[in-house]
Design a protein that fits this description.
By secondary structure, this protein is of the alpha+beta class. The protein folds into 3 domains: about 1-180, no CATH class; about 240-315, no CATH class; about 330-429, no CATH class. Helices cover about 35% and strands about 25% of the residues. It has 15 helices and 18 strands. The strands form 4 sheets. Strands 12-9-8-7-6-13 form a 6-stranded mixed β-sheet, sandwiched between helices. Helix 5 (about 205-215) crosses helix 6 (about 215-220) and helix 10 packs across helix 12 (about 285-325). Mean pLDDT is about 95; it is low at about 1-5.
Length: about 425
């Protein structure tokens, strides 16, 4: 089976060889790191019997407990959720990250913790390193990790495979954005660029890449504009495009709270041709109200633009329609009972389409170059809409109301066949 799995990328250069060598020199998890993972990254429960005897599934301590909901284990102090059950085993797992450095590289190490907790026994978690991100001083990233197997799940790893150079993928990206051990070690460069010990719930890999390669990220971090920094990590193009506007807003004391709404608002101002250097516009006292006002303005503008687009399209359609079909305008043919007429305006195509519940208007039959659409009447009642070929004048379709089968199709075909010469003459005109 393993032969079908993607192979590891062999180190292609001295840098990658060095990273693989450094990876082998990283220290094992410390006891405080393992204890933190067990305490913080999974839920803990107290299993209670009908007798009221409750067992802490983390440390194994038993006591009499009458409270429901949450409580603290009297032995280990862990916050527990009380569950009334006769079950004796919990199996759980979590991913977490330890952020450290080695020889100038910023390293995000990814771990899997697997825990089996049995009643009356102390929990004994097992830990496995899944991989690591290595970020150099310029923000370039190299991934070392386990081999991925074929599967849709995050856990699709070949757990017996070595930690080797791998292609970055969604699984590693997802895991590296899970729990982060709070004692974070960063390079001197990242520290110099404003990092003060917290990732602020920003993806660590993205955050460190930006701090090492983007001066704007450094500026935002040092000025404690965390919401803007978070937006930069997810949408760097937005911050680049509106950087001057951001600086003007900041100089005027604007507090960025709902950054997503603010960027939406700025984009609407730009769409409406407003001055993005105007403090009174870009730094509103009430962002929600200003945003809603411009939503309405943009919607009105969009409707206006759509109408103008439709108007221009109508002009173009009319010119094309008349070029293709004007030679057939006013054409009539009859057998004394059924009268067949040409359709001489685009508006009539839409009216017929609406009255007959067919698509001759909306599907723009009036622009079909090698086909002609006609209508058939008995007295004042329309009995059919007909499409004929202008190549050999045969009927392509003859539809009654709502695309129904027309009972007069053969009679209509006879009328058209008798008038082929007239239609051909019009075609040559």
């Amino acid at each position: 089976m393993n032969s079908k799995h993607p192979k590891a990328m062999r180190p292609r250069n001295l840098k990658e060889k060095h990273i693989v060598e450094l990876s082998g020199r990283l220290r094992p998890l410390t006891t405080p790191q393992m204890n933190w993972a067990l305490n913080s990254t999974i839920n803990h429960y107290g299993y209670r019997l009908k007798s009221g005897m409750c067992t802490c599934m983390k440390c194994g301590h038993e006591w009499l407990e009458s409270r429901n909901g949450m409580c603290l284990c009297p032995e280990c102090g862990t916050q527990l959720e009380i569950k009334d059950t006769q079950e004796r085993v919990i199996r759980d797992k979590s991913y977490f990250n330890v952020i450290t450095t080695i020889e100038g590289y910023q390293v995000i190490r990814m771990f899997l913790m697997i825990v089996e907790m049995r009643k009356g026994l102390k929990a004994k978690p097992a830990f496995l390193e899944i991989g690591s991100y290595w970020i150099d001083c310029k923000g370039n990233t190299t991934v070392v990790g386990l081999q991925r197997t074929l599967g849709y799940y995050i856990d699709s790893f070949a757990f017996g495979s070595p930690l080797e150079i791998r292609r970055d993928n969604d699984a590693f990206r997802h895991i590296s954005d899970e729990w982060v051990y709070p004692r974070i070690k960063v390079t001197d460069t990242i520290k110099r660029n404003g990092f003060k010990g917290s990732c602020h719930h920003i993806h660590p890999v993205c955050l460190f890449q930006q701090l090492l390669s983007n001066p704007k990220a450094e500026t935002l971090m040092k000025s404690n504009e965390i919401e803007l920094l978070r937006h930069l990590c997810h949408h760097p193009a937005d911050v680049d495009r509106y950087w001057n506007t951001i600086k003007i807003a900041k100089r005027n004391g604007y507090k960025f709270k709902d950054v997503g709404m603010w960027f939406d608002y700025i984009k609407m101002l730009e769409r409406m041709g407003r001055d993005l250097n105007s403090p009174s516009l870009i730094a509103p006292n009430d962002l929600k109200t200003a945003h809603d006002i411009y939503v309405a303005k943009v919607n009105r503008q969009r409707i206006k633009e759509q109408r103008e687009k439709e108007r221009q399209q109508a002009i173009e359609d009319k010119a094309k329609f008349e070029e293709l079909k004007s030679r057939y305008f006013g054409m009539e043919m009859t057998d004394g009972e059924i009268e067949i007429h040409s359709i001489d305006t685009i508006d009539d195509y839409y009216k017929i389409g609406e009255s007959q519940s067919i698509c001759c208007g909306t599907a723009k039959y009036f622009l079909k170059e090698s086909k002609l659409t006609l209508t058939a009447y008995i007295g004042n009642k329309q009995i059919a809409t007909i499409e004929i070929s202008l190549d050999d004048y045969h009927i392509i379709q003859c539809r009654a109301f709502a695309n129904g089968i027309c009972e007069y199709t053969e009679q209509i075909a006879g009328i058209i066949n008798a008038n082929k010469k007239m239609i051909a003459e019009r075609k040559r005109a």
